[in-house]
Amino acid sequence: MPTPDRTLRAVNLPADWSPQSWRNRTAMQLPQYPDAQALEEALAELRTLPPLVTSWEILSLKQQLADAQEGKRFLLQGGDCAETFDGCRSDVISNRLKVLLQMSLVLVHGLRKPVVRVGRFAGQYAKPRSADSETIGEVTLPSYRGDMVNAPDFTPESRTPDPRRMIKAHARSAMTMNFVRALIDGGFADLHHPEYWNLSWVGHSPLADEYRRMVTAIGDAVRFMETLSGSEVHNLNRVDFYTSHEALLLPYEESLTRQVPRHWGWFNLSTHFPWIGMRTAQVDGAHAEYFRGIRNPIALKVGPSVTPDQLLRTFDLLNPEDEPGRLTFIHRMGATGIAEKLPPLLDAVRRDGRRVLWVCDPMHGNTESTSNGYKTRRFRNIRSELEQAFELHAAAGTRLGGAHLELTGEDVTECLGGARELTESDLERAYKSTVDPRLNYEQALEIAMLIVRKQAQIAAPA
Ligand code: PEP
Ligand code: CO
Predict the structure, then answer these.
(1) Which ligand is nearest to the Cα of residue 304, counting in written order?
(2) Could you identify the atom of ligand 1 that is nearest to the CA of residue 82?
(3) Distance between CA 459 and CA 435 in Å, rounded?
(4) Which of 404, 386, 405, 353 is nearest to 455 (CA)?
(5) 3-class DSSP assignment, residue 389
(6) Measured in whole angstroms, how far is the alpha carbon of residue 252 from the centre of its chain?
(7) Closest ligand by atom to 279 CA
């Protein structure tokens, strides 16, 4: 049952903002479409297509994030670095959902609070790149910017940005969304049946025993409650699941930015929870301009070069009313940088008394290349950044309220280490990512267990 929109109309509802006003600013990381007319036609078609999410869902997520800001919930946000059109398959989608559900079970059980579940999917198709072009031998072509823009093969046809790909991305996102919604509505996330989420290849995982013990404990608790109340506990049959992606390709985002009959203002209806990536986070840039006018909860990646002053200016721009649930900062400093870079930012925001949800992305500051040419991340660095994040927040009097992870339910070997101690020579066995390396199922579950242990340690220091 939808709740009424009680949020006051922002006093400063930006009068000088429109879904197009970002076009007057410098936009980083946007492709050059060679055919302007084809671009216009694609955008015109997108504007007529139905949205992927609703304003009611967006506002209910905002409320959950407001709860997380007060420490009443923990945010789990995870999925691929980049979705691909080929990866829009039932096994890929359901395996990813299974991992996220298992992780959230571990977190709910261990943290004793509800989890806000947000997937990096149903729209995570555009990527920022460090260079606009790539040269191999004598040939220079545009960089691959995600399936929503072009294709990865190194040919002029594949690399030329094609606006029709936005229509395909919208359709794939809708299919993904449809399948996830159907699974969840059909009882896939039912706590009475955590066995639905088992992944067949896991077999003899070193973590399996700990996970099974947890599932048994939860099953016992559920049965106990049901015996006590004499009936089935129905709200355990389904969970809320939300989507997010980096809202990088502004023409696409603009075309799905709509007004709705029962709520004031503008909503990005391509996803519940868009974020601004680190490379497009300039306060005076086009992305910040676009984001300031939409009513979705929004997140901003915060990298090691951000100063306290910049962060506070971003605050003024993106959340001038200090609205609950509106703003999330996802810090991604790297295991060697976080101890130096994070505390000044935490102090500045805390002293200013502003409301924010702090989330740690322990992936993007820890990317490296191996001697055999793979982009990878070491599990021990991911773990170290996350553990330090808990400690630094505790020391600063702030709260780490969530984790942002790149993961997959597939049996890949992309990150080094973890319970099975993957080595550099394992990488070639199952390296499937076209962009950043992801945690596999086991490594992802290990991170969830680690969060629980670390949180307990912070709460009750030895
Ligand atoms: C990402 O999340 O895939 C990404 C590109 O992150 P960042 O903007 O933090 O580098
Ligand atoms: Co990434």
Answers:
(1) 1
(2) 3
(3) 37
(4) 386
(5) helix
(6) 18
(7) 1
345 vs 349: CA distance, rounded Å: 6
Task: State if residue 304 touches ligand 1 by the CB under 6 angstroms criterion.
Answer: no
Q: Write the CA distances from 400 to 69, 247, 359, 396, integer angstroms.
A: 9, 24, 6, 11
Residues 6+ apart with CB under 8 A from 138: none
Contact (CB, 8 A) for 115 and 74: yes
pTM above 0.70, yes or no: yes
Closest atom of ligand 1 to CA, residue 81: 3
C-beta of residue 106 within 8 angstroms of C-beta of residue 452 = yes
The Å distance, Cα 278 to ligand 1 centre, comes to: 6
**Which residue do the tokens 């020579």 mark?**
425
pLDDT per position in the chain (462 positions), as tens? 444 455 545 445 677 899 999 999 999 999 999 999 999 999 999 999 999 999 999 999 999 999 999 999 999 999 999 999 999 999 999 999 999 998 998 999 899 999 999 999 999 999 999 999 999 999 999 999 999 999 999 999 999 999 999 999 999 999 999 999 999 888 777 777 777 777 665 666 777 787 778 778 777 777 777 777 777 665 656 678 999 999 999 999 999 999 999 999 999 999 999 999 999 999 999 999 999 999 999 999 999 999 999 999 999 999 999 999 999 999 999 999 999 999 999 999 999 999 999 999 999 999 999 888 889 999 999 999 999 999 999 999 999 999 999 999 888 999 999 888 889 988 998 999 888 999 998 899 999 999 999 999 998 876
Total tally of structural domains belonging to the chain: 1
Amino acid at 418: G
> Rounded to the nearest whole angstrom, what is the distance from the C-alpha of residue 197 to the centroid of ligand 1?
28
CA of 227 to the centre of ligand 2 (A): 46
Contact 145, 127 (CB under 8 A): yes
CB 276 within 8 A of CB 253: no
Instruction: Verify whether ligand 1 is closer than 6 Å to residue 331 (CB atom).
Output: no
Ligand 1 site-directed mutation target among 83, 147, 278, most atoms within 8 Å of CB: 278
Of all protein residues, whose CA lies closest to atom 10 belonging to ligand 1? 278
Judge whether 237 and 190 are in contact, CB under 8 Å.
Answer: yes
Atom 1 of ligand 1: nearest residue by CA position: 81
For residue 127, the ligand 1 atom closest to its alpha carbon is: 5
What range does the domain containing 82 cover? 4-459
- Could you tell me the sign of the dihedral formed by the alpha carbons of 207, 73, 291, 243, in that order? positive
Nearest CA to ligand 1 atom 3: 81
Q: Domain holding 386: CATH number?
A: 3.20.20.70
